[in-house]
Amino acid sequence: MSMALTTIGWREWVALPQLGIPKLKAKIDTGARTSCLHAFSIEEYDKDGDLWVRIGIHPIQRDNTTQYYCDAKVIDKRPVTDSGGHTEERYVISTLLELAGLQRMIEITLTNRDSMRFRMLLGRTSMLKTFMVDPSLSYVHADNQQSV
User: Fold this and answer.
1) Are strands 35-38 and 11-16 parallel, antiparallel or unpaired?
2) Which of 98, 90, 106, 76 is nearest to 21 (CA)?
């Protein structure tokens, strides 16, 4: 018995409510295993014996005045190889994703994406058994997002 999947386009508006981010453009990237979020500032600290990070995020491309700061528990640090073949050690956090009226916990790596068009990539493990990508569509679920 298969579960019905929600169709999304190659780019969508998403929210990360636990990080206080109400609206963010994400590129849906089935070639990437893990999701990735832009962070221009990452400061690690200890909280009750656990590693946490304070993250600075510019949610809008080419706008360095709008910024959010949030805190998240680090669940892992792992090497990630980008599409250009460069490998870097990245923090991994777990947070709630809202997309297409659905919510699910996902893992996200943190890196500086200032030079990239999208502040977030939604990787294939975040879509498993929930979403199906139609590359001919774009911002299918934009109406579900509140404005910043």
Assistant:
1) unpaired
2) 98
> Which tokens sit at 40?
């221009």
pLDDT in tens, 99-129: 999 999 999 999 988 777 889 999 999 998 8
Predicted confidence band at 2 (pLDDT cuts at 50, 70, 90)?
low
Contact predicate 141/130, CB 8 Å: no
pTM assigned to the model: 0.88
CATH number belonging to domain 12-130: 2.40.70.10
Other C-beta atoms within 10 Å of 41: how many? 13
Domain residue spans in the chain? Answer: 12-130
Question: How buried is residue 127: exposed, middle or buried, by Cβ count under 10 Å (0-12/13-18/19+)?
Answer: buried
Residue entry with tokens 């073949």 = 85
Summarize pLDDT for 48-62 with one digit per residue, the tens. Answer: 999 999 999 988 888
Q: Is 112 helix (H, G, I), strand (E, B) or coil?
A: coil
